[in-house]
Amino acid sequence: MNYCTQCGAKVVLRIPEGDSHPRHVCPQCGEIHYLNPKLVIGCIAEWEDRILLCRRAIEPGYGLWTLPAGFMENGESTAQAAMRETGEEACARVAIEQLFALVSIPHINQVHLFYRARLLNADFGAGEESLETMLFDEHQIPWDKVAFRSSIFCLEAYFMDRRSGAFGFHESTLPPP
Amino acid sequence: MNYCTQCGAKVVLRIPEGDSHPRHVCPQCGEIHYLNPKLVIGCIAEWEDRILLCRRAIEPGYGLWTLPAGFMENGESTAQAAMRETGEEACARVAIEQLFALVSIPHINQVHLFYRARLLNADFGAGEESLETMLFDEHQIPWDKVAFRSSIFCLEAYFMDRRSGAFGFHESTLPPP
Asked: Hey, is the C-beta of B104 within 8 angstroms of any chain A C-beta?
């Protein structure tokens, strides 16, 4: 961050009075610019014991498989974000069941949330950011071709819970690779 | 948002190619500025069946009681944010137990998370943003003087679960007041 979003002046990095963190502060208009983690939200969408994955048409992870997920937008709830992203990436309609996993990734300033969801029908397909979409049985999951560690964490926890007969809530913090 | 944080040029609001939402785009350097919801994270911190509340020394909600909570910072996990905020607002040290509540507040672009936590000792007090801090029994909670609807939702769910003998996970979306 170089310039103030409010007045266009060059910002300086300093700790505001009463604060504990350095912030980008505007010496002209006084605006303090806070940078905060972003939420990435998605679904483990199920259809007849199979899970919906998308093969990414964009970086990072071009060509690799992932759970449908993306950045939460202003003006929506977390569950709405999960449904919207599943619609955009896999042209799929889902019913949200329960929050299943929260993954903090401090080194990239992200928090990932995944909901368990049911596909409303088998009518899905690749959205703009996907090369293809497919339903996978547990033994078909292409583990060495899954794009993100949060997706791997979530899928492993999901199949573990499914074998145990009860779905819980799972939390993890990922260290830098 | 008026000016580009990267180059200082005046931004324009338009839908970038392949996007579905209007964004602040810089016509000079091409930067797309995304605005995303912020996480507010706190604790329901317990000590001998009583709950720690803080009376706010800042707006919004000056003079009203609230669960210790605040904006998640870059570079930390959600649980670390909950511990840090409880330290800053109530000078209290806690052990995190479990994620207890998620409250989406779309009209102010916030998601609130609350963890159940145990105070490690009864050594606490008002931080810079609190007028005072106090432990409350359920029947002492000053319901008409609690600052935020997310705190009220969380406290009500907490006491309901405690009476039932089992703590679950609670999710809600708050409509505009």
From this structure: yes
